[in-house]
Amino acid sequence: MRALYVIFVAILLQLLPHADTVFLSYEDARKTIVQAEDRLLTGSRIYLNDKEDKVNKMFMRYKLDELGAGFFDADVNAAGLHFFKGKKLVEKSKILKFLKRLPKGANLHLHPTASVSSEWVVRNISYTPGLLRCTDKNGVSILSFRRTPSKHGCITKYVLVKDERRRSLSPAGYDRGFEKLINLYTPVPEYDYPTIKTVWTKFQNMFRTMSDVLRYLPVFRAYSWRMLEEMYEDKLMYAELRMEFKELYDYSGRTFPPESSLKELLSIVNDFRRQNPKFMGIKVIFTTRRDVESNKVIENFSHFKKLHLAYPDFIIGFDLVGQEDLGQPLYNFISEFVNLPKTAKYFFHAGETNWYGASTDFNLLDALLLNTTRIGHGYALMKHPIILNAVKARDIAIEVSPISNQVLHLVNDLRNHPGSFFMSQNLPMVICNDDPGLWGSKGLSYDFYYAIMSFAPNHAGLKTLKKLVWNSIRYSTLNKQEMRFAFQSLEKTWNQFINDVLQGKVF
């Protein structure tokens, strides 16, 4: 009855121009509709205990102060600025300080080859003995420990990074230049990346720069360990990674088949968990690039099925990756993709586009028809009401990566991101970070910042954050026993966090 009453009031307000003709007072009608909208918001059905309520009041004081300052001065409104322009403001924010200590559950959309902070790569990988660099015909630097530049399409000879650094005017200056090879940051993104083509070209070139060096066995081990560390340091307890397994090599030139990287990763995760028992580990969504030949996609899909049958609890599903606009649509592979093993799942990138009615946004439809478990990005979803309603009815979570969508040219001001609409409708969604190492948003806290400061309404606080955190476990592929343990562990760390805030250990 209450819902019908709210709808009735809303209709009256639209049809009758004069408030005095409505039996309800204007103020009562206004309040009723505002309350009805609030009940739809992500986190609206979360109930805070007394301690949580006190923490929420503290959080909201800082949030409203920061938003208030930004309301009157757009230059200090980090919530409305491009990440590259607002990052220094964000890093001074009490909200980010709070979020870095907040238990964030799981990260369900992360590409390992772009997961580690570029500063760590410079300090560690660039100083690894034997690292070489050459340049291909497009001027892209290729890093490797193999002295075969032709193998990587290089037109220059390899030079030792150590020698380049020694001959440079300043080692620190050389390191800053090296970091630009693997970090998209620029103080003027509007000039350096005027179109989606320019930013995606630079973005994909960075994967090319790092591809071979990350297959060097000692680097693969160190990098994978650091990936786990950076997640754990940012209060994450679990992750589901998008990756393809490739052959590894060592300094002697020996190569190891792709399955060796799978076994290495399993070993690294097990060692990390022994040292950090609160970390639950990772699972892998096997990926293949969507811009390769069709037969290569089909071949990789076949390889995935074999790996899944051998490691069903670790290799959990399949996805296509790469720039969606220029890659092959899901529709091209329907005849193959309908033959998914019953124990595996799909986690398709779909709708990562500004186009409407193109093959790219219709990936959303094919992802739905192929029974995807989650949707990567789903940026175009609000343009397709039938698909959107089906996503909500079937409880398919949208993996939203705020900073990624902004840096890769889908939206300039994150307050205009469809994530706001998703929140306003309480659509199933989780916050993810996609490729944080390539834009300096170490961990997941920065993306949570934009979720609560840009997507959410001004008055949304701890209830919304708690819902997003709990969603990350709810929409994971953890089995029943794992999920029960995860929620118990999360509840414990959450309560400890609340106590820490009240004891003055956070703000």
Main sheet summary? 5 strands, parallel
Percentage of residues in DSSP E strands: 5-15%
Helix percentage range: 40-55%
The backbone outline, from C-alpha atoms, is globular
Give the total of beta strands.
14
List keywords for this structure.
507 residues; alpha/beta; TIM Barrel; 3 domains; five-stranded parallel beta sheet; four-stranded parallel beta sheet; 21 helices; globular
Task: Write a structural description.
The chain has 507 residues and is α/β, with parallel strands linked by helices. It is built from 21 helices and 14 strands. The strands form four sheets. It has a five-stranded parallel β-sheet. Helix 6 (118-124) packs across helix 8. The longest helix has 23 residues, at 50-72. The radius of gyration is 24 Å and the shape is globular. The protein starts with a helix and ends in a 5-residue tail after the last helix. 40% of the residues are buried. The model has no long low-confidence stretch (mean pLDDT 94).
Briefly say what this structure is.
The protein is of the alpha/beta class and 507 residues long. It has helices spanning 2-15, 26-38, 50-72, 83-92, 94-101, 118-124, 161-167, 171-179, 189-192, 196-211, 217-233, 258-275, 294-310, 334-337, 363-369, 385-393, 402-407, 419-424, 445-455, 462-474, 480-502; strands spanning 105-110, 132-135, 141-144, 159-160, 236-243, 248-249, 255-256, 281-289, 315-321, 345-346, 349-350, 374-377, 397-400, 429-431.
